[in-house]
């Protein structure tokens, strides 16, 4: 009886810990007051509407979307061949390649951001936009390689030999036989990469310049100047966006199999 | 079946990196023959098959097919079919599209593709399964699809890797008959790999027994079953009592022993199946260690001065109890004469 009670208490605490911030943000977003506060003062949708009127939010949202979509695509273009080579051939430096590819997960984002700023943006005079694109691609690459590797490992390699014996070239076999069978893995990698890129803070922090900011960075800047609930409203909107993407992915792809 | 060589492997050496799997192998196969490559795992039979398909490049040697040197022709241009042990069907394609895959690559007219796929599926009795995905088929059905997929390409040689090993006993018999029928109807030259002597004996026109990357014996099923040439082949096809020849008799644990007649000249060993051992009378005596009822017969394990002896008697004959002593004989006229020990 006591252990049962204890487990309910633990469960409740965990749920509060996980969902609490989310509840507070949503409540603050629906506040009728003028400052970010909890409990909210009154109830209104005005801050949610305001989000769409802030010019810098629109620009940074566009940039974040661009980075999330094209950064992930670039990571997949690089990552799928890496995953394929790692799973099908015994490479001489296979383990080293794996480690290098997953380095961006292990190395703290702050360091990656600082390094890119110091050795890419400053000496080479690379524009901040390009640096952001490179950084996001590199950060998503490990996820792309991992998720695609998982689905390649589940695909028997003898079907490729079967296709070759039936007259298909190696390259054609990759497109006709391998790709169609790992497409849900690739889609899962895309979603994971998209969400990772969209929520990225530490690296983007170093690589933001005048007028070039990703959405999360822009939200921090906005809060330093204006302390109104529109940031909470935006955060709530983003949370709903992420949740719906992951929910749909789980529903149609069985997303959790890959992550 | 013509007498001319159709597929010829000459001095073929195959290696994975520095590990030599098959060394200087020579084998000639006639058109329309059904050949079994028989041997335990690791004997090089699958490696040999992969070399014929072109999936493995030979380290040295030559492969000729239908008069053309194909040693270095890539696998996708060889006109050789392969039915994988795991079937290797394309999971994202329907049965129809699996069978049509190779034909579509050939850019044949749609009408012809449809006809050939239909004919192929009819041949293996799967006409009604067109639009199923491989995952919705049983193991036996998947194998038929794999067979049809290879056959519609009209390969010059069809290779099958352990075609019956993944099927249950009843299906195995059915598929065996099916393979023979398909081979008769299509006339295709078939080479199949197996570790199961019964499969090889029942299916093949000729059996190639392999051991450690080399051919031990090539012969008809009767030859291999009744007249094994080496100790390895004898052991593999069920001769469980094998003794080297010494002087005018055999060498046993108790030293040289005379038999009722001299072994043939040039013999280096003699081998008896359990049912060739005479029980109840004879020049030797042993103790029954174990007895097992096997339906039509009883199997005995004897401890004797010669070494352990395995014997088999008709179940109708009186049984010997474990622990009792029994006379036995190894009749030389029934033994298989081995050239190599």
UniProtKB/TrEMBL annotation, chain A:
Gene3D superfamilies, A to Z: MetI-like
Cross-referenced InterPro entries: MetI-like, MetI-like_sf
TM annotation in the entry: 61-87, 99-120, 126-145, 229-249
Domain ABC transmembrane type-1: 61-249
UniProt-annotated location(s): Cell inner membrane; Cell membrane
One of the GO biological process terms: transmembrane transport
Pfam families membership: BPD_transp_1
Gene Ontology terms: cellular component: plasma membrane
Cell membrane as UniProt keyword: yes
Domain of life of the organism encoding this protein: Bacteria
Family annotation (SUPFAM superfamilies): MetI-like
Keywords: Cell inner membrane, Cell membrane, Membrane, Transmembrane, Transmembrane helix, Transport
Membrane topology: Multi-pass membrane protein
CDD domains assigned to the protein according to its UniProt record, in alphabetical order: TM_PBP2 (cd06261)
PANTHER family hit by this protein: INNER MEMBRANE ABC TRANSPORTER PERMEASE PROTEIN YDCV (PTHR43357:SF4)
Similarity comment text for this entry: Belongs to the binding-protein-dependent transport system permease family.
Protein name, as recorded: Putative spermidine/putrescine transport system permease protein
UniProtKB/TrEMBL annotation, chain B:
Upper taxonomic lineage: Bacteria, Pseudomonadati, Pseudomonadota, Alphaproteobacteria, Hyphomicrobiales
InterPro entries assigned: AAA+_ATPase, ABC_SmlMolc_Importer, ABC_transporter-like_ATP-bd, ABC_transporter-like_CS, P-loop_NTPase, Transp-assoc_OB_typ2
Positions of the ABC transporter domain: 7-237
SMART domains assigned: AAA
Family, as annotated: Belongs to the ABC transporter superfamily.
Organism: Nitratireductor aquimarinus
Keyword Cell division: no
UniProt keyword list: ATP-binding, Nucleotide-binding, Transport
Gene Ontology MF annotations: ATP binding
Domain of life (superkingdom): Bacteria
Protein name, per record: ABC transporter ATP-binding protein
Keyword check for Disulfide bond: no
């Amino acid at each position: 009886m006591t252990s049962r009670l204890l487990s309910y208490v633990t469960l409740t605490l965990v749920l509060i810990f996980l969902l609490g911030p989310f509840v507070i943000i949503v409540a603050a977003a629906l506040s009728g007051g003028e400052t970010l506060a909890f409990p909210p003062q009154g109830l209104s949708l005005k801050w949610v509407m305001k989000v769409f009127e802030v010019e810098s939010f629109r620009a940074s949202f566009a940039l974040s979307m661009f980075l999330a979509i094209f950064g992930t695509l670039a990571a997949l273009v690089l990552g799928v061949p890496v995953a394929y080579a790692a799973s099908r051939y015994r490479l001489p430096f296979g383990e080293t390649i794996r480690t290098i590819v997953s380095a961006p997960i292990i190395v703290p984002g702050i360091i990656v951001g600082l390094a890119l700023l110091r050795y890419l943006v400053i000496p080479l005079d690379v524009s901040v936009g390009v640096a952001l694109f490179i950084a996001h691609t590199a950060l998503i690459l490990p996820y792309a390689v991992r998720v695609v590797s998982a689905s390649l490992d589940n695909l028997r390699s003898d079907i490729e030999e079967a296709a070759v014996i039936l007259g298909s070239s190696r390259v054609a076999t990759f497109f006709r036989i391998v790709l169609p069978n790992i497409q849900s893995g690739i889609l899962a990698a895309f979603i994971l990469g998209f969400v990772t890129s969209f929520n990225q803070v530490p690296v983007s922090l170093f690589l933001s310049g005048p007028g070039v900011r990703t959405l999360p960075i822009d939200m921090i800047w906005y809060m330093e100047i204006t302390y109104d609930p529109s940031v909470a409203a935006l955060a709530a909107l983003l949370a709903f966006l992420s949740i719906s993407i992951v929910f749909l992915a789980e529903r149609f792809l069985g997303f959790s199999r890959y992550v | 079946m013509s007498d001319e060589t159709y597929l010829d492997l000459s001095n073929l050496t195959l290696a994975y990196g520095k590990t030599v799997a098959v060394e200087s192998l020579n084998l000639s196969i006639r058109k329309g023959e059904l050949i079994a490559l028989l041997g335990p795992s690791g004997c090089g039979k699958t490696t040999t098959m992969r070399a014929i398909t072109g999936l493995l490049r030979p380290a040295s040697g030559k492969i000729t097919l239908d008069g053309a040197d194909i040693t270095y022709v890539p696998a996708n241009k060889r006109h050789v079919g392969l039915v994988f042990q795991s079937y290797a069907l394309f999971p994202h394609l329907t049965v129809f599209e699996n069978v049509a895959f190779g034909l579509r690559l050939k850019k044949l007219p749609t009408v012809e593709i449809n006809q050939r796929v239909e004919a192929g599926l009819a041949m293996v009795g799967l006409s009604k399964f067109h639009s199923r995905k491989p995952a919705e088929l049983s193991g036996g059905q998947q194998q038929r699809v794999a067979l049809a997929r290879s056959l519609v390409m009209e390969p010059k040689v069809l290779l099958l890797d352990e075609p019956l090993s993944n099927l249950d006993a009843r299906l195995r018999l059915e598929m065996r008959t099916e393979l023979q029928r398909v081979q008769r109807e299509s006339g295709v030259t078939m080479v199949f790999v197996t570790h199961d002597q019964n499969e090889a004996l029942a299916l093949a026109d000729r059996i190639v027994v392999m051991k450690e990357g080399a051919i031990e014996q090539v012969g008809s099923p009767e030859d291999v079953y009744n007249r094994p040439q080496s100790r390895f082949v004898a052991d593999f096809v069920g001769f469980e009592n094998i003794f080297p020849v010494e002087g005018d008799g055999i060498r046993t644990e108790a030293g040289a022993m005379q038999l009722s007649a001299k072994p043939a000249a040039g013999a280096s060993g003699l081998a008896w199946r359990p049912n060739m051992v005479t029980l109840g009378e004879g020049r030797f005596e042993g103790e029954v260690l174990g007895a097992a009822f096997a339906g039509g017969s009883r199997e005995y394990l004897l401890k004797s001065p010669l070494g352990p002896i395995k014997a088999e008697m008709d179940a109708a004959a009186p049984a010997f109890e474990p622990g009792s002593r029994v006379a036995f004989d190894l009749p030389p006229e029934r033994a298989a004469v081995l050239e190599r020990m």
